[in-house]
UniProtKB/TrEMBL annotation:
It is a multi-pass membrane protein. The lineage of its organism: Bacteria, Bacillati, Actinomycetota, Actinomycetes, Kitasatosporales. This is Molecular chaperone. GO terms for cellular component: plasma membrane. InterPro entries: EmrE-like, Small_drug/metabolite_transptr, Small_multidrug_res. It comes from Streptomyces agglomeratus.
Length: 106
């Protein structure tokens, strides 16, 4: 169940990061409310996953999935460029996430 909580937390992390851009410096009410709720949901569900997972593994995977998801959706929603260099870095992050999952033994 810890991995499911971590995946849910990662979705909240992506929503938080993308929502932060939409707040325009927290000057827009509803995007700000959405962003704060996404942040709270992400931290809460991360904490549930950390009942079982090591904090270093859980946090690294949470931020890794959040980073890759934010860049991928940012390219779709905000038309941000994805370069070959970014793809190489994403592959490194995904490889690290897989390695951490395998090394955790949970």
């Amino acid at each position: 169940m810890a991995w499911i909580w971590l995946l849910i937390a990662s979705v909240f992390e992506v929503a938080f990061a993308l929502g932060t851009n939409a707040t325009k410096g927290f000057t827009r009410l509803w995007p700000s409310v959405f962003t704060l709720l996404a942040a709270a949901g992400g931290i809460f569900t991360l904490s549930l996953s950390l009942r079982t997972l090591d904090v270093g593994v859980g946090y690294a995977i949470w931020t890794g999935i959040g980073s890759v998801g934010t860049v991928l959706l940012g390219s779709v929603i905000f038309k941000e460029k994805i370069t070959k260099e970014k793809v190489l870095c994403f592959a490194s992050i995904v490889g690290g996430i897989i390695g951490l999952k395998l090394a955790s033994g949970i």
